[in-house]
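note to self — DONT lose this again. spent like an hour looking for the file last time. sequence + predicted structure for the chain T wanted, 109 res
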Amino acid sequence: MALDDLDPDALYHLASAVEWAEYQAREQIDPPSIAAEGFVHCSWGRQVAGTVTKHFAEATDLLALQLDAAAFGDVELKEEDSYGSGQTYPHAYGPIPAAAVTRTIAVVG
């Protein structure tokens, strides 16, 4: 993992290299979670290691997409504990413009 390259206070969305290519083609980050839960899952840099361990243990080409929330347009960003874990995570309530990605960092590869 390139966790040393992550800013602990920056906003990230985790995606495979294939997903990132698809998002770029559609010009928006619009994973299935939008339809299923109403939002895009995100993490602060300090949360990425735990998110990777819990949800992406089998991933082989995972990227951390660093996001500029100021470039989200009308998409609302909320900090929530959706699953009663005792920890809040940032959620974007709508597709995130692909242009909001300021850099990509390979965290599993």
